[in-house]
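Students often ask why we bother encoding 3D structure as a string. The short answer is that it lets us treat folding as translation between two languages. Here is a chain of 215 residues written in the first language.
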Amino acid sequence: MTVTPQDQPRPPSLVGSVLPPVLFMLLCGVVGPIFLIMGLVMDPSEPGTGWLLPTGIGVTALDVVIGLLLGRGRYLNRQRSYRLSRRGRPARGKVLSFEQTNVRVNEQPLVNVRMRIEGRDVAAFDVESRLVIPEIRIPLLYGGDLPVLVDPETHEWEIDWAKAPVVAPSAVATGAPAAGASAADRLAELDSLLARDLISRDEYDTARARILGEI
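And here it is in the second language, the structure alphabet:
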């Protein structure tokens, strides 16, 4: 199949990465711009209005700074993904262990993952990182083996979700758990899958019995 120029990944845009977080922060902290506008249009000699302008400036500036920091992180992540898409080598990441952090980012769980990355052109090395992983992808961690893209020189890496197997949520009921996952962790994850209707009650009962039988 011929790869057309439109299929090639495009370098990330700094403006496109930074502008949405800044606008989002201004929307969330809209009280700052409101105070700022009120402070500019109202007569400063009127009693009780002198605080509007400095407060509006301060809150608006804080919103912009937070948005710029979030945008910078977003831009750096996109840059890394772009570099890996251009020169990264395919490899396999063997999940050694993982645990939930009870933190969610954009309604998705933040998971602490330990992996050993190795491949044909990549010397094996261990990594540990906190990753935002979509809930529907969590069962893949029990399989213990994920496709990754890695830079052999810098050891920058990321999970290549585009090449990850499509596994039904019920796979957690039959797949082998990743090394280091305790029975309590597996039961907790099973409860979470049932609560989100990602597995049926029969699958839940079967998996729970299997886990308890291994204790």
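Translate back mentally: Residues 1-6, 171-176 have pLDDT under 50 and may be disordered. Keep this in mind for the problem set.
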